[in-house]
Amino acid sequence: IYRKQQTSSQIADKVKDMKSVLAGLGLSSIPVTAAETWPFYDQTLINAVDFIMVHIFPFWEGFEVSASNDVIFNHIYDLKKIANGKSIVVGETGWPTNGDNYQKSVPSIQNSLEYMSKFVCRSISEKQDYLWFAAMDTPWASTNNASNVEQNWGILKSDYKTPKYSGDTWFDCNKVDFSSSPSSSSSSSSSSASSTRVNSQSSSPSSSTASSSRASSQSSPTTGTNTATNTPTGGATTSRSSSSGPTSLPSSSSSGRSLSSSPLLGFYRSIHNLISFFI
């Protein structure tokens, strides 16, 4: 929708088609969603999906990192007002570690760590599920884009094993101030769809089934999260926002669809790429 390649009605129809396919296979308990950037997740798409998967990048809205924690959560709160009680998963968010500034957004290792620590700790506190963008740097990514940052979103360097941040403990949520700032200029009402910049590498607003299992190896950079990184092809880091370990996967209260059953989850992990291809 963001790139004007499809309308929300077209994507909603594909979601409905996928539900029909799954029902025909006896797999109607598998939840289906579509990933889209926050200003374009309208009521038509919300009504079609089982849970909302939204991509939010305060960096591409041009905010200073100090305001960005409030920016992303204000967008989440606004979506909750129209979500009809459906769960919301942040499909992608992150902060680049190198490149050119975008308005007031400055890419750096320190700013990336500040954004990550505040977002992760607040997500744990508010039980907000998310996928972190990205697990590792992608040197093959295009350099022909705004701010020249697309290669530099990883928490690991491009060798797939070396962390960018120093020390064994990157941050401690007991010491991170992630509280809301009432005086912050980050109110979502001050942002508009036209100010949102989501590059094709840092956001994928194409319809897909829930991909919370984009993982093959475990990595736990911070106390209180269960984090998994995907295979060495770049991409998102999956996290369940619970201080006591993984939570159940999102489900729609209206449809009863759930991925929390372990046999179903194992099967889903083996076929979700195939399902994504068909929609």
From TrEMBL:
Its main location: membrane. Residues 181-261 are annotated as: Disordered. It is an enzyme of class 3 (hydrolase). GO terms for molecular function: glucan endo-1,3-beta-D-glucosidase activity. It catalyses: Hydrolysis of (1->3)-beta-D-glucosidic linkages in (1->3)-beta-D-glucans. It is found in: Cell membrane; Secreted, Cell wall. GO terms for cellular component: cell surface; extracellular region; fungal-type cell wall; plasma membrane. One of its GO terms (biological process) is polysaccharide catabolic process. It comes from the Eukaryota. Keywords: Carbohydrate metabolism, Cell membrane, Cell wall, Cell wall biogenesis/degradation, Glycoprotein, Hydrolase, Membrane, Polysaccharide degradation, Secreted, Signal. Gene3D superfamilies: Glycosidases. SUPFAM superfamilies: (Trans)glycosidases. It is a single-pass type II membrane protein. Its EC number is 3.2.1.39. Belongs to the glycosyl hydrolase 17 family. Glucanases play a role in cell expansion during growth, in cell-cell fusion during mating, and in spore release during sporulation. This enzyme may be involved in beta-glucan degradation. Active on laminarin and lichenan. PANTHER family: GLUCAN 1,3-BETA-GLUCOSIDASE, GLUCAN ENDO-1,3-BETA-GLUCOSIDASE BTGC. This is glucan endo-1,3-beta-D-glucosidase.
